[in-house]
Structure formats: structure tokens, C-alpha cells
Amino acid sequence: MKTIYASEFDKEVIQGGKVVVDFYSTECAPCESLAPKFDSCAEIYGSDIQFIKIFRQENRELANRLEVKSSPTVLFFDNGKQVGPLLTGGIKRSDLMANLDSMISPERAVEIKSKIIKTESHYDTVILGGGPAGLASAIYLGQAKVKTALIDRALPGGQISTTHLVSNYPGFIEPINGYLLSHNMSEQAKAAGVDYKSAVDVTSVDLKAKTILVDEIETIHFNYLILATGASPRPLGIDGEKEYKGHGVSYCATCDAKYFQDKEVIVIGGGNSAIEESYFISKFASKITIVHQFDKFQANKEAQEKVFADQKINILFECEPRAFIKDGDKMYVSIENLKTKQMESISADGIFVFAGMKPNLDLFSSQFEADQFGYLKVSDEMETSISGVYSVGDINSKKFRQITTAVADGTIAAIAITLKQSTVV
């Protein structure tokens, strides 16, 4: 594997035969999540395909020429021509391998995969998800000497790892960077002896057999399971959103705001995330237009005051986006005024969507008792409707979702499991 600069691109990539290129950035949780997957694939496919990394922030002109609009972005080249689908955002190992397989013969792909050794491991408790709720559980279980593994499809940290500043977490007089807060929690869990299996694909979860298959390679057995999979940005579901995700449409200000220096941006939403991240984006963008469906924001008052006082920020209340359109380097949002029913189109260089969250329960379909919105119902000890399976954090049915409430959930579940472990003869 090599890390190259733009000046070496033609020689190493265009003239390099079969090549895969990872454009990465700093302070980018998805980039950090991809890194171990990229390294692992380099070990498996490295004799057939060259693996290249390019630091996007120092090679912006090249990134723009290749229409790399988000980090990370992985491109595939065969004899100088780009092949296969571009991968961006939270890239799965399986998607990466599927593209790599397509660059070699089917027989060679089978041969390479046949050499991958499958393994098994056993734990008292497995935590699925590494946000604040999962990390709090890990800290308590690790310190109680309960053999514990934490599994995360990305790197531990959850949503707060992409939050610019956290101002209301107890113990910090001044606001703390979200990434640093999650990093400290993660390091504390590691110090307590918790095993990490991060940046992995969770292939399947069998609650009856009490096993989790990771990356189609490792089967993990458990006695107790804590679900801490959190929530993810809820898509708007409008025309152009899916098509332009990573190509002008972003859901992470911390990841992508820095690429809109002196440019115009549209923000969709009016809750805490939308307003707090708009204030962060204003440090880079020359103009921000916030589009919100209601006549007032739902964000906390302090964040609202900052946004109202920012001369760069314009607000369109009682308006909803109906479609995203791209024309060259410009993005357009077709907007309906909910009062007048009139349509208009506004333009910008990029769009950020902060339209609420949805619980990450795609691995479990409808196995659990849930509320009308799909969030899990739990007991006072955070146990779900399935014995031995606990749920903590933002996937739970509750009125308030904050870092502190997530940490409280994780603490309760961990103590409940520790007490049950101590009674087992």
C-alpha cells in the first residue's frame, strides 16, 4: 500500500494497472472506520491489485477533478479507466470486496477467499454498538471483570464523534469536542480490558443460538447481549437525495463543512443538530440558508441565539424541500412554501440534511416489542422482550435522547448483567 500526492497520480494510478484509491480526510469518523477494512483488503488482494491512499485535504484540486465530494471516497481503476461504482461514506467491507472481486477473474476471487481463515470466540457479554451508551456499558462491565467484547460497524464513538462541540456533558466547564469526548470514553473502556472489534460488517445475529457473525469470518458466542446500535440520519426520501448523496448532499458537517470554504450551503432542518451544525458550517461557508418546515426552531435556545445573530445565515421558515437537482458544480433545492403553496428553486454549492433520526435495527427486523415509531421497549433494567438481550441509548423508546441519558441506560444494563453473572454458580 502507498500514500501518494496528486503529482504521482498519473504514474501510480492511470498507468498502474489495477488500482484502488482511498481519498481520506482527518477528523472524519467514516474515514477512520474504513482504514482497517482497506488495510485488510490490501493484505488479501495486494498481489493482484495496487492499493493507494490520497490525503484529500492536501490534494483538493485532484479530488475536485475526479468529482470526489465527500470523505472517504474509494475509486477503482483498471488500466487508467475508472470502473465499478464509486463508494463513499460508511463503506462496508463486503461492498469493497465486491468491487475488488469484479476487477479480477471469478476463479481468482474464489481462490483468494478460500485462503481466509474463519475463527470463533466466546464472551460473557457482547455489546453491539460503540456510542456513549455502549461505551458506558463497556466501562462498567470491564471494570467488573466481565469478559466483554464491543462490536461496532464503524469506530467507537457514535454520533458524538461527528459532533463539533458538546456543551452540556457534566464535568466539563467549557464545551468539549465531540470526537475527543467519545475518544476518552473509548480509551477508558479499552483500559478496563474490553476487547474491540470495530470497523466490521455484522453479517448476522442469531439471538436463539447467541452468536454474531462478523465479516463472514468470525463467529462470536455470547451469554448476554447489549444492543447499543443507536440511530442514524433519517433521509428525506425526495428526488435526487439518494442520487447525490456524497456528491453534493451530506449528513455530516464535521466531515464535510471544511470543503465549503467561502461557498454557499443549504441546511435542511430545525432541531438541535441542524442549528448547532449550521453555526459550525458558518465558520467555513460564505452563506447558509436554513430551510425548516415549521414557523420556529426546535433547537435549544442558546444554539438558536447564535444562529439568529450570524449575518451569514438566512432562514426560510414554513418551507419544505421537494427535490434536489444538480447542474454542473451547483446544487439546487426545489422548495414549497407551505403557507402559499408556491414553489421556488434556490441554489448552493452543497446541501446538508439534518431531518431527525431513525433507530438502527436493520439486523433484527421485528423480533422485539417496539413502540409505534420502531423504538424498543425495555424494562427498568434495560432488558428487552427477549430474555438476556438488553437495549440502551437512542434505540430505546423514551421521551428524551441525550448523551447523558444514553450513558445512564448503558450503566443500568451493565450493572444488571454484572449482578446476574455474580449469581451464576
| Gyration radius over CA | 23 Å
Let me know the largest β-sheet.
7 strands, mixed
What distance lies between the first and last C-alpha atoms, to the nearest angstrom? 51 Å
| Envelope shape | globular
Question: Which runs of at least 5 residues are low in confidence (pLDDT < 50)?
Answer: none
Mean pLDDT: 92
Describe this structure in words.
The chain has 425 residues and is an alpha/beta fold. The protein has three domains: 2-114, Glutaredoxin, CATH 3.40.30; 119-232 and 357-423, FAD/NAD(P)-binding domain; 249-353, FAD/NAD(P)-binding domain (3-Layer(bba) Sandwich), CATH 3.50.50.60. It contains eleven helices and 24 strands. The protein has helices at residues 9-14, 29-45, 60-65, 93-102, 106-114, 132-143, 178-191, 253-256, 272-281, 301-309, 403-423; strands at 2-4, 18-24, 50-55, 73-78, 81-88, 119-128, 148-152, 165-166, 176-177, 195-198, 202-206, 211-214, 218-227, 231-233, 249-250, 264-268, 287-291, 313-316, 319-327, 330-337, 343-348, 350-353, 357-359, 389-391. The strands form six sheets. Strands 6, 7, 10, 11, 12, 13 and 24 form a seven-stranded mixed sheet that branches. Helix 2 crosses helix 4 (93-102) and helix 9 packs parallel to helix 10. The protein is globular. It starts with a strand and ends with a helix.
